[in-house]
Design goal:
Elements (H helix, E strand, L loop, with lengths): L10 H11 L3 H23 L1 E7 L2 E6 L2 H8 L2 H12 L6 E4 L1
Parallel strand pairs: 2-3
Antiparallel strand pairs: 1-2
Helix pairs in contact: 2-4
């Protein structure tokens, strides 16, 4: 019977390795962007959001409310900064509110 090695790894390290080896980082970023949007904007904005997509460093937000779209357009730079800080990486350069 082979002797077991006593190396221990954290689940976080194992997940990062798995994601990297299976080339899943873009999909994980998309999920993280959606979760971060809901967290940062709160339930009021999240209920009026129909889709959140990340495409070539552009965050595309589809909203039901034209009034909300106009209000959020004034704070695009702040939203970009907050989202990038929350995700820990500069994934977003531009926001499109549609």
């Amino acid at each position: 019977m082979a002797k077991r090695e006593n190396d221990s790894f954290s689940i976080e390290d194992l997940m990062k390795t798995f994601i990297k080896q299976n080339n899943l980082s873009k999909g994980m970023q998309k999920i993280k962007v959606e979760e971060t949007w809901a967290k940062m904007m709160g339930p009021g904005v999240a209920t009026h959001t129909t889709s959140v997509k990340l495409h070539n460093k552009t965050l595309i937000i589809q909203l039901k409310s034209s009034v909300l779209r106009e209000e959020l357009s004034y704070g695009k730079d702040k939203i970009i900064k907050m989202m990038n800080e929350e995700m820990g990486d500069k994934l977003i350069n531009k926001i499109m509110l549609v």
